[in-house]
Every structure is written in structure tokens, then in C-alpha cells.
Amino acid sequence: MEISTLSILLLALDSGVHAFDEGPFQGWFEPAPETYAGSLPVTSDLIVYHDQNPNVSRSATFKPFENAWAELGPDSVLRNAEWTWRVNVSQFYAPCNGSDVAGPSDRQAFVSQTYDFSWSAEGNISEALDGATGPLCITQLNGWADLPVNVTNAITEDTSCVPALGQACVDAILNRTPTPSLEEGCKWGGSNGVFSNMPECRGSFGLDPALSETFGVGFSLGNMTNQINSGDTFWVNMSGPVLGNETWLYETVANQIQLLLFRTLLPTSTQPNASTVPGMELLCLRANNTKLPNVDFNKDGVALVGEVVLLSAGTSTVAGVDSLMYLGLVALIVAVVLG
Ligand SMILES: *[C@@H]1O[C@H](CO)[C@@H](O)[C@H](O)[C@H]1NC(C)=O
Ligand SMILES: *[C@@H]1O[C@H](CO)[C@@H](O)[C@H](O)[C@H]1NC(C)=O
Ligand SMILES: *[C@@H]1O[C@H](CO)[C@@H](O)[C@H](O)[C@H]1NC(C)=O
Ligand SMILES: *[C@@H]1O[C@H](CO)[C@@H](O)[C@H](O)[C@H]1NC(C)=O
Ligand SMILES: *[C@@H]1O[C@H](CO)[C@@H](O)[C@H](O)[C@H]1NC(C)=O
Ligand SMILES: *[C@@H]1O[C@H](CO)[C@@H](O)[C@H](O)[C@H]1NC(C)=O
Ligand SMILES: *[C@@H]1O[C@H](CO)[C@@H](O)[C@H](O)[C@H]1NC(C)=O
Ligand SMILES: *[C@@H]1O[C@H](CO)[C@@H](O)[C@H](O)[C@H]1NC(C)=O
Ligand SMILES: *[C@@H]1O[C@H](CO)[C@@H](O)[C@H](O)[C@H]1NC(C)=O
Ligand SMILES: *[C@@H]1O[C@H](CO)[C@@H](O)[C@H](O)[C@H]1NC(C)=O
């Protein structure tokens, strides 16, 4: 292989993790849809089955909107509450109902990912938030944010983003996220949401060369269609048939940082001049907490998760990988990207 070809492959590797199209669907506050604008590649029953029987699942507890607890009313069910956030990632094989397939259409690989919360208070999420009916503004990290390995490896067993992103970056994200209002909703989007532009996040999001947006949409808790109960899926992202190496997408999704940012308005009776207090949260989790090898294969100064994940999936030690195998890996990833 000539040097110039290798450079092109390495360039492709750089942007590889950003090169996928959106999956057939992603949705907030609903499990896999029965009917879908496009056609689902597999039945929604099958998706739900695998979401409930995932290949990897991790959960951790957090104290929801602890920043606001002191200002809540005496009968608050939120104060001192503990919620559990769970991330499931499943990979499964099924015949694909569609044409965009890489191999025999009777055995395609798919990846699906879900988030759910559970809480111990009675009732739906609105009741678990002291009867809040205003906006619940929530977003997750764009699936193809490709964070450095050192940042990703720093995630611990709990939901704190601080070990990975640093306190300054966490504070910057929280402080620059607009407080929702009853009249205007979330007011998210635009330049507010680009974490990689925040100087405090230079050591994490700033190192992903392709990250250009991070914010999603907001939802109203007063909206019946957005209502969830404890344990319900509140976010799902289901892939199309996985092109190229069958496990690549699964390993990436399972190993990357999952991040949730949310804000809401909590009812209170203790404030003289306001009927609500703003609550905010930033949570991080990895479904698969295995430490990834921090090896900058393409020598561009930073090892990104997309760069190393397949390698660690296929081999137990980095030391055993020689350059021939590395070239094979690059070619494989390029095949995935171009395929
Ligand atoms: C996630 O996986 C667990 C099993 O590990 C399952 O009990 C739960 O229902 C799944 N969550 C969703 C939203 O499917
Ligand atoms: C995930 O589990 C399914 C069985 O439900 C299995 O067929 C598949 O190979 C597993 N995928 C990975 C990447 O381990
Ligand atoms: C397969 O796709 C067609 C449309 O392309 C749709 O009518 C049909 O219901 C789909 N079947 C399944 C099992 O999803
Ligand atoms: C959903 O998954 C697809 C790959 O199947 C990916 O391209 C997309 O970025 C993901 N979306 C989000 C918001 O994570
Ligand atoms: C990761 O490395 C970058 C520099 O490459 C550094 O700025 C950042 O602080 C490191 N983060 C962690 C959690 O080690
Ligand atoms: C309720 O949510 C659904 C789905 O997100 C949306 O289509 C609808 O416009 C919302 N209704 C109101 C009154 O906000
Ligand atoms: C949440 O539960 C409460 C009490 O059962 C109910 O009054 C309210 O309508 C529910 N919210 C929605 C949007 O379903
Ligand atoms: C309510 O008053 C306090 C001081 O008494 C002030 O700090 C706070 O910003 C006020 N809140 C609103 C929503 O005006
Ligand atoms: C977790 O990730 C490691 C490294 O990528 C991989 O070897 C292992 O098989 C993964 N475990 C699961 C359950 O996906
Ligand atoms: C995908 O890549 C891994 C790691 O290199 C390898 O172990 C596995 O056999 C490959 N699978 C396929 C179907 O090519």
C-alpha cells in the first residue's frame, strides 16, 4: 500500500464515526413505533424485545434536580429522591425489510439503544416532579460526537460528568443552557448548544473535529403524549442495517459516553415572588465501562473512541497488534464508512 493511499485512509478514519446516516428512527417518550413514516426494517415488536433483553445495560442512581431541593415546598416528593437512569444497547440479527443492505438480506445486524428512568414515588413523571406541568427540556448527546479516549475512560460508575469533562466544562454547559419558561418553552438551540465552542470544554468536546451541534428538542410535561411512567423508554435510537463489520456500530454505541442534559420548572410554595424554581441536570454514563486503549493510531494528536473501538473489540491486548493488522483495521473501517 502506498503512503498516499494510507493518508487517504487515515483521513477517512478521522471522520469515520460521523459518516453514518441517521437510523430509521429515533424517538423521545415512546418505545418503538407501531407505525412509522418510513417503513421499519424489522417489526417494532422485535425492537422492543431486544431493547428489553439488551447485550449490555448499565444503570446508576442520581439525585434529580438537587440544586432546587432547598427551595421546594414542605410536601415535595422530589426532595431527597433518588432516580435511576438506565442505558440499554442491543445488537441483533434479523431479516431486513428493505433494500439498503450490505450482505444477505435475511441476516442483517441492527443496533438499538434506549434510555429509561425509574423512581420510587407514585405516578407519572409529572407527579414525580411535584406535579410540574411546564416544559421538560431534555437533550442527549448527538450520537456521533466522538470524544477522546482519555475523556471517555474517565467516566466512573455513577452519573457524574465531572471526572470526564471537568467541573469547568460541566458548569459552562449548565450555565449556558437557557432556563425554560412557561410561555416560550425551552429556547434551546442555535449557538447555545455547541459544547465544542465552549473554551471550558476544550479538552473534551473541543477535540472532536466534526462536532457542530449538540442540542435536541424540548417537551412539555403537560402534554399527554409525552407522559412517561417509571421504567418506560424515554429515548430510543434504532439503527438501519449495519453496513460493513457487524459489530462496529454496537461497540461504538456501547462504549461511547451517553450524556443527558435537562432543565425544568418545578412548582414551589416557598418562594415569595415565583411559583416555580428552575431545576437542572447533566448526567453521563457508559453502557460498557471497559477502559479503551489510549492509542493515537492515526497520529493526529488525539485518540478518539471511533478510532480505537473496533480494535479493542477484536483483540485483548494492544501490544499484540502489529502494523499489518492495523492496516487491515483501517481498511475495514473505511469499508464501513464507504460501504
Ligand atoms: C433494559 O434492560 C433491562 C434488562 O437489563 C430490562 O429489564 C429493561 O426493561 C430494559 N429497558 C427498556 C427501556 O427496554
Ligand atoms: C447480542 O446478543 C444477541 C442475542 O440476543 C447475539 O445474537 C449477538 O451476537 C450479540 N451481539 C454482540 C455484539 O455481542
Ligand atoms: C415492509 O415494508 C413495506 C413497505 O416497504 C411495508 O408495507 C410492510 O408492512 C413492511 N413489513 C414489515 C414486517 O415491517
Ligand atoms: C442514532 O443512531 C444512528 C446510527 O444508527 C446515528 O447515525 C445517529 O447519530 C444516532 N442519533 C443520535 C441522536 O444519537
Ligand atoms: C484528555 O486529554 C486532553 C488533551 O489531549 C486534556 O486536555 C484533557 O484534560 C484530558 N482529560 C482527561 C479527563 O484526562
Ligand atoms: C404534544 O407532543 C406531541 C408529540 O411530541 C406534539 O406533536 C404536539 O404538538 C404536542 N402538543 C402540545 C399541545 O404541545
Ligand atoms: C399524570 O398523573 C396525574 C395523576 O394521575 C394525572 O392527573 C395527569 O393527567 C397525568 N398526566 C398526564 C399528562 O397524563
Ligand atoms: C425572587 O426574589 C429573590 C430575592 O428575594 C430573587 O433573588 C429572585 O431572583 C426572585 N425571583 C424571581 C423569579 O424574580
Ligand atoms: C465491552 O467493551 C470491550 C472493549 O471494547 C469488549 O471487549 C467487550 O466485549 C464489551 N462487552 C460487552 C458486553 O459488549
Ligand atoms: C468485526 O471486527 C472484529 C474486530 O476486528 C472481528 O473480531 C470480527 O470478526 C469482525 N466481524 C466480521 C463479521 O467481520
How are the secondary structure elements laid out?
Elements: H1 3-15, E1 25-28, H2 44-52, E2 56-62, E3 83-94, E4 108-118, H3 125-128, E5 135-140, H4 149-153, H5 162-165, H6 167-176, E6 218-220, E7 233-238, H7 248-255, E8 258-267, E9 276-285, H8 305-314, H9 323-338
Antiparallel strand pairs: 1-7, 2-3, 3-4, 4-7, 5-6, 5-8, 8-9
Helix pairs in contact: 1-9, 7-8
The chain binds 2-acetamido-2-deoxy-beta-D-glucopyranose (10 copies).
One 2-acetamido-2-deoxy-beta-D-glucopyranose (NAG) binds next to strand 3.
Keywords: Signal
Signal peptide: 1-19
Main β sheet profile? 5 strands, antiparallel
Q: What is the overall shape?
A: globular
Q: List the helices and strands in order.
A: HEHEEEHEHHHEEHEEHH
Helix content: 10-25%
Q: Strand content of the residues, in percent?
A: 15-25%
Task: Say which molecules are bound, naming each kind only once.
Answer: 2-acetamido-2-deoxy-beta-D-glucopyranose
Structural class determined from secondary elements = alpha+beta
What is the number of domains? 1
Keywords: Signal
Signal peptide: 1-19
